[in-house]
Design goal:
Blueprint lengths: L1 H9 L3 H6 L14 H33 L5 H28 L3 H28 L5 H7 L1 H9 L5 H27 L1
Length: 185
């Protein structure tokens, strides 16, 4: 089995070898070659575009058959909002994965953090709203359910996008620090 992988790496196009080189230093994990990383990114982008083909087939059908006028605004707002929200969720999962070597524990931590964001925060908002607390608006702003509702209505609130990107950057910086401290031990 190991010989088949080695044979595949020998067949890599020389163009990719000119773009970069994989160097493994002492104490680091061995990375894939440049060509393999390119293929992984290409597969990911192709898969994402393949998911969008449903819209490309369905929306013209609605227009020509039902004379339905399509407004791309809500779809664009929902796409941008869910993409930034997904970035934030993946960053939280990466942090949990970086904090422990056991992937099951990382999955449980990620589930717990996302459960708090998706379920507990809206419940806290309902509790605060009944008591007319001043901090209820802050809790409502963080609640994922209300953000999705806003995006679904076509309201692209850039404060939500800024919140998602800020949390993503902060959590990813914590992830990098966690990995650096683990490798320096």
């Amino acid at each position: 089995m190991a010989t088949s992988v080695g044979g595949m790496q020998e067949k890599e196009p020389q163009f990719f070898n000119k773009l970069g080189r994989t160097t493994v230093h002492e104490g680091e994990l061995q990375r894939h070659s440049v060509y393999t990383r390119f293929l992984h990114w290409a597969y990911g982008i192709f898969f994402f575009l393949a998911l969008l083909t449903g819209f490309a087939i369905y929306l013209p059908f609605l227009y020509y058959q039902a004379r339905f006028r399509f407004d791309p605004g809500p779809l664009l707002a929902l796409s941008i909002g869910l993409t930034t929200m997904g970035m934030m969720f993946i960053a939280i999962g990466l942090l949990a994965s970086a904090l422990t070597r056991n992937q099951i524990i990382a999955a449980v931590w990620t589930f717990a953090a996302l459960f708090v964001l998706v379920v507990i925060v809206p419940v806290a908002y309902l509790f605060a709203a009944r008591q007319h607390a001043g901090w209820a608006d802050g809790i409502r702003f963080v609640a994922i359910l209300f953000q999705i509702q806003s995006f679904g209505l076509g309201q692209l609130d850039l404060r939500y996008v800024a919140l998602h990107v800020s949390v993503c950057i902060f959590v990813l910086s914590l992830t990098v620090k966690a990995i650096q401290t683990r490798t320096n031990r």
